[in-house]
């Protein structure tokens, strides 16, 4: 059997240059990325509002943000966290859909862990210690840990892919990811001291302050990732044959 020989190009035919991914029409992912970032930032504004509404009830240095869910403004806390979770899910969905990161990658898994962890924080409220321990409170605590650990992993893993041509933003993403892990290391250190016979870990450090610093750092890292999402374009189509 004779080998198949590709047909020659018709006279005057030429290969069309592939469309540039950067010059691609209006940026297919700009709208969802903008919506995702807006949701995250709106959620953060609502969290800040909780501090004003409960300035005399919750000590921001010692008490965690979840304390706000034990009072009459639980709905506002839930709305704030849901906005951050939804916006985050949209942003990481953009990264996966645009093939910036692979679906089965540390960045994708980290983004999913952060998003699902935040959703679990809303579904399972913090333990009200005036009543006693609860299963929901235990799930809430572990979901918080998963979320706060997962996001730094995600942004560190995605930094290069999200900012391939912006070394400054890539470096900033990594610095914020490492800074988030540094905040977490303070909590780990307090736990180790407790296991060695020291004070309970939640009393050995200003837990509320550490958590707020951690959250602010992680949201900043997420915002820098979102900046990369805003610049994504529709992947270039394959070259096609055109005739003059």
Description of the structure:
This protein has 244 residues and is mainly alpha-helical. It has one domain. The chain is 60% helix and 2% strand. The protein contains six helices and two strands. Strands 1-2 form a two-stranded antiparallel ribbon. The chain is globular, with a radius of gyration of 23 Å. Keywords: Membrane, Transmembrane, Transmembrane helix. It holds the Pfam family DUF998.
Assembly of the depicted chains: single chain
> Stretches where pLDDT falls below 50 for ≥5 residues?
1-6, 12-26, 236-244
How many whole angstroms does the radius of gyration measure?
A: 23 Å
The number of helical runs is 6
| Mean pLDDT reading | 85
Q: What string, H for helix and E for strand, traces the elements in order?
A: EHHHHHHE
Number of strands: 2
Shape: globular
Note the main sheet.
Answer: 2 strands, antiparallel
Span between termini: 35 Å
Please identify the structural class as seen in this structure.
mainly alpha
Number of domains: 1
Strand composition percent: under 5%
Strand order of the largest sheet: 1-2
Helix proportion: 55-70%
List keywords for this structure.
244 residues, mainly alpha, two-stranded antiparallel sheet, 6 helices, 2 strands, globular, disordered C terminus, membrane, transmembrane helix
